[in-house]
Design goal:
Blueprint lengths: L2 E5 L2 E4 L4 E8 L7 E7 L6 E6 L5 E3 L7 E6 L4 E6 L8 E8 L5 E5 L3 E4 L4 E2 L3 E6 L1
Parallel strand pairs: 2-13
Antiparallel strand pairs: 1-3, 3-8, 4-5, 4-9, 5-6, 7-8, 9-12, 9-13, 10-11
Length: 131
């Protein structure tokens, strides 16, 4: 059973930084894809950043140049470094992982994407950015 546990959320002022971590367990290999999605009340979950098993990364237009996703294959941790945070980044952030391919589903508004069915989701970590 694949298990994902997020940590690192919190409250920061605009312009600040946070690093989210997603501890991944249950895979017998490191060739899985992963991603970070975010969701606000009343809205669908949307992609922020994704990383493929070969290390290729993709970012939503709204976070390009500010967020960096990375994957430590030795420790099985997926990180999301978030810099220059804005109030509109406030959301619950969820980690997803899948061994069959990308976690990115169909493209939706504003250069982001919906999730596709994945092996597992974390329970989320809240990020609050005040102006």
């Amino acid at each position: 059973q694949v298990l994902l546990v997020e940590s690192g959320g919190g409250s920061v002022q605009a312009g600040g930084s946070l690093r989210l971590s997603c501890a991944v367990s249950g895979y017998t290999h490191s060739t899985y894809s992963a991603g970070w999605f975010r969701q606000t009340p009343g809205r669908a979950r949307e992609g922020a950043a994704a990383i493929e098993s070969d290390g290729t990364t993709t970012y939503a237009d709204s976070v390009k140049g500010r967020f960096t996703i990375s994957k430590d294959n030795a420790e099985n941790i997926v990180y999301l470094q978030m810099n220059s945070l804005k109030p509109e980044d406030t959301a619950m952030y969820y980690c997803a992982a899948d061994s069959k391919g990308t976690v990115m589903g169909r493209q939706v508004r504003a250069g982001t994407w919906a999730p596709r069915p994945v092996d597992a989701w974390g329970r989320g970590t809240q990020v609050n950015v005040s102006s």
